[in-house]
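Researcher: Quick test of sequence recovery. Tokens follow.
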């Protein structure tokens, strides 16, 4: 975004919503950034796993704050599945189908927030007429 677009986003309802979400997840973001720096410096497998966990926690926080109802349904779906079943699904590379409708609803919700923020940021922008994003 250019400066005008960033200003539009700061002054928009969706921009304020995003800032609130990010503020709520500040601790997880800090841990993720720190683990990423450690990983870049060391390349160590242990640091890679720690970073993956921190990133997952941060993403989960963002989704819980931005789409709480849909995230709750997604998490409830996963809690109904036994650990043995999850291991078997991973072994056969079919886990992407588990809770698929809940995951897709969550993705649509988060995508809608991003789409609204871009639309509001681009308001009055020279690029606002471009349909090929």
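Model:
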């Amino acid at each position: 975004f250019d400066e005008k677009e960033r200003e539009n986003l700061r002054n928009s309802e969706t921009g304020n919503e995003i800032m609130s979400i990010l503020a709520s997840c500040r601790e997880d973001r800090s841990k993720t950034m720190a683990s990423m720096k450690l990983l870049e410096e060391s390349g160590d497998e242990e640091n890679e796993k720690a970073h993956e966990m921190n990133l997952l926690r941060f993403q989960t926080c963002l989704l819980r704050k931005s789409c709480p109802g849909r995230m709750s349904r997604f998490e409830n779906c996963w809690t109904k599945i036994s650990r043995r079943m999850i291991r078997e699904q991973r072994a056969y590379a079919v886990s992407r189908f588990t809770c698929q409708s809940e995951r897709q609803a969550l993705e649509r919700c988060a995508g809608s927030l991003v789409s609204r923020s871009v639309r509001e940021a681009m308001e009055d922008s020279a690029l606002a007429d471009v349909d090929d994003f």
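The CA atoms of residues 4 and 92 lie 49 Å apart.
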